[in-house]
Amino acid sequence: MEKEMSPPLHIRIFIALVMAVIAGLLIREPAVVRFYDFVGSLFLNALKMLIIPLIVSSIISGIMGLPTTASIKGLSIRTVAYYFITTLSATVVGLMAVNLVKPGIVNGVPAQEILGLHADGAALQNDLSSRGISDMVEIFHRMVPPNIVEAAAQNQLLGVIFFALLFGGSAIGLPQHHRQRLFSLVEAVFQTMMRMTGLVLHFAPIGVFGLVAKVVAETGLAAFMPLLTFFFTVLGALALHIFLVLPFLLLLNGINPVNHFRNMFPALLTAFSTASSSATLPVTMDCLRKRAGVSNQVSSFVVPMGATLNMDGTALYECVAVMFIAQACSVDLSWTQQFFLVLVALLTSIGVAGVPSASLVAIVIILNALGLPDEAVGPILAVDRLLDMCRTSVNIFSDSCCAAIVDRSRGIELTRYE
Question: 154 phi and psi, to 5 degrees?
Answer without folding.
Answer: -95, 10
